[in-house]
């Protein structure tokens, strides 16, 4: 069991972030665009997103991906390397960020339950796919084994 390879966490996290950003862009920017515009105008906000908001959401996607691969790296020694562990990391991130983060706006009647349920359902698939994609690029540093001659001494 080696140390967490931070460089590979970032690399895998960027890959996972790309997956997240593609899913989010298609879901929220295309499929649900009209529903989001209705919700936002109902709240007295613009129905279209600014470039700064799009950039902020993309940064959020990359940060989420990096966090996800960091969780994968942390649980990997206990659960083993592979897709099953990557899916578990995705589920942890989905529960902690998507589900819990989406609850408050629904409780406050800011976002309709149906809209949030759709985003959460797609987000569940999104985080599992992103977790597997990001974990594929994660490798731990090779542990240096003692040389045979040093062990005989």
Architecture overview:
- This protein has 153 residues and is mainly α.
- The protein has one domain (6-139).
- Helices cover 78% and strands 0% of the residues.
- It is built from six helices and no strands.
- It has helices at residues 6-31, 33-42, 51-79, 83-107, 113-136, 148-152.
- It is elongated, with a radius of gyration of 19 Å.
- The two termini are 25 Å apart.
How many helical elements?
6
Main pleated sheet: none
Indicate the radius of gyration in whole angstroms: 19 Å
Low-confidence stretches: 148-153
Form type = elongated
Determine the mean pLDDT: 92
Q: How much beta, percentage-wise?
A: under 5%
Strand segment tally:
0
How is this structure best summarized?
The protein has 153 residues and is an all-alpha fold. The chain is built from six helices and no strands.
Give keywords.
153 residues; mainly alpha; elongated
Present the secondary structure layout.
Blueprint: H1 6-31, H2 33-42, H3 51-79, H4 83-107, H5 113-136, H6 148-152
Helix pairs in contact: 1-3, 1-5, 3-4, 3-5, 4-5
